[in-house]
Amino acid sequence: MPASPLNRRAVLAGTAAAAALAAIPALPGNAQAAHAAEAQRQRPAYRWRNAVIGGTGFITGVLFHPTVRGLAYARTDIGGAYRWDDRAARWIPLIDHIGWDDWNLLGVEAVAVDPAHPDRLYLALGTYTQSWAGNGAVLRSEDRGATWTRTDLSVKLGANEDGRGAGERLLVDPRDSDTLWLGTRHDGLLKSTDRGATWAAVDGFPATPNPSGQGVTFLVAAGRAVYAGWGDGGGTTAGLYRTRNGTTWEAVPGQPSGTSAGVPIRAAYDRHARELYVTYADAPGPNGQTDGGVHKLNTVKATWTEVTPVKPQGADTFGYGGVAVDARRAGTVVVSTNNRWATVDTLFRTTDGGRTWESLKDRAVLDVSETPFLTFGADEPKFGWWIQAVAVDPYDSKHVVYGTGATLYGTRDLKHWAPRTRGLEETSVRQLISPPTGTAHLISGSGDIGVLYHERLTASPSRGMATHPVFGTATGLAQAARKPSYVVRTGWGDHGNGAFSDDGGKTWAPFAAQPAIAKDAPGPIAVNADGSVLLWTFVHWDGTRYPAQRSTDNGATWAEVSSFPKGATPVADPVDPTRFYTFDADTGTVYTSSDSGLTFSKGAAGLPSGDSQFKLAAAPGRSGDLWLSTKGNGLYRSTDGGAGFTKVGSCRASYVLGFGRAADGARYPAVYQVGATGDSTAVLRSDDEARTWVRINDDAHQWGFIGDAITGDPRIHGRVYLATNGRGIQYGEPA
Predict the structure, then answer these.
(1) What residue ranges define each of the domains in the chain, with the CATH number in brackets?
(2) Cα(477)–Cα(484) distance, integer angstroms
(3) Which of 393, 448, 687, 708 is catalytic?
(4) How far apart are the C-alpha atoms of 105 and 44, rounded to whole Å?
(5) Is 530 a known active-site residue?
(6) Residue 77 is a catalytic residue
(7) pTM of model > 0.90
(8) CA–CA separation, 276 vs 240, rounded Å?
(9) Alpha carbons 651 and 59: distance in angstroms, whole number
């Protein structure tokens, strides 16, 4: 099943400050300061970890350090960067400190290491180049990413845009460790002479940037020279450029042409043979490539040779992506195909400089038992797709790793492959349920990998993705409050868009029927308290909204609910099965139903409006107790079933809210939210019905955008589950 760009990788409207101190109610003058200090002293220490899934996102780059055994780095398109801990055999996340306001920096455009100074590490950050996204930044570290110094750029980077599997676009100059080069999408080539502290455009770089092009696709050192790939169209500007002195740049003479030499994707230098291998495709990828090839340049003789393993032809269309050389053996190279759906992508390996090649897929044995979701509902996993990151261990010729749209595979013998993703979690998570009973404490809905049933938080779900039908991306997940064995889900699937479970989410069956619009616009779903009524709404990926549909026979038949505001998210009352609620963000109006969703009428009006990210939540075990998160407009509460709302004075902003087990002696559930009481945004908990709040995350654990879902555990006080857009499911517990 192909991975697609995570749908949540899109415009995230609204911003807030990056870190939050202890949250307190509004008090005047010195009383407020004293209360703040006391709340800070009482803030509980929390331990944060990932609920293990394993990978799940696009691994866009892998880099072994050339002079340190066992040291490697990985980058992702929306989920940060990682360092490999060889002793623990797991990845260590490096930029979880990126906060709410800087969510655009969680995408990593490029990684660079300094061969002469092993502790130095550089990251180029920036997820999107659109006008609504912030500028990029460069992080530099002297301790392998344990601590960072940041330089903000005046240009934008595009770690989650077309061409994100190319690169690396960041390079330490082979002549001078103080000099760095950075290739951009639309602003040409940048240079720093003070180890990334300041940057300036390179005068005299021959290629002219294109606002809609790819710009510099990679930078690579070949001896003392630096080569730059350029991906903007054809003509005289496409291809390869170089500088031999760090000052003047020129087009490399004699470059290949034709269908096998379009956009240069990646390059790797064989220092023994003094040959530069370059992969090409007719589009930047990862999607859309139909042709390509591999060429090598003898940098001494200035001659080019085509060494394409297999040429695309007929229905077998694809490009070439990753390339890595064996630092120990001249002429030993690994390249990857990309976007090859007819026969599935592969790695080709040569030991004679490209005269002959072997497809490593042909004899590969894949073991995905550690991350079973990788079968995507099929009998066997695929060797991979979106393979643009390939690396060969400079200390072990048979240790090869490659990234895909869902994982990172590795081998030690060129035959047996298994995921190498411990510690690396890149899921974009949309929905979370923590059941009050059963063997699972967590059920989740995500982009690309549908719904997962987490028997254990420390291991990838043994059942893999929920199947029958398989969803690529989940759009809805709901549990009947008084019948927790009944769970429903919706999403994008090839064989149905809605399903139900009678055993708490362990096994699933598709709805017997579904509205015709569900195929093109599946949206959120709600189930009433006793599981007898379903309410499904429909939103197309382009934003078009459609009338809600209602079923009273477990999805066998559906009927339109014309009085329900199109595209709104339904919420079921957790006690009374006749009651549903929703919030119309366009008008700032709550709609309620007291006839099991058959009709809806207006409730409270005049609430904040104009943002579809507003979220309505119902407190468990109470009828008509509703909480409305309105982003920068604060938090509102109704205790009369939506007839009236009162603003909660203890917080300035609320982005998403959920509930968990009450504290000992407390009558009301613990309330968790991503929000703010002052100028900063944090993960907050209240044990006194939102009169006061304490911050439970810290500056090292912020994870960019975290506004989609949060829920406490109804069985364990203090445990909270948090959805992130690229760093998977985080869960925190008092230390």
Answers:
(1) 54-419 (2.130.10.10), 429-734 (2.130.10.10)
(2) 13
(3) 448
(4) 28
(5) no
(6) yes
(7) yes
(8) 11
(9) 38
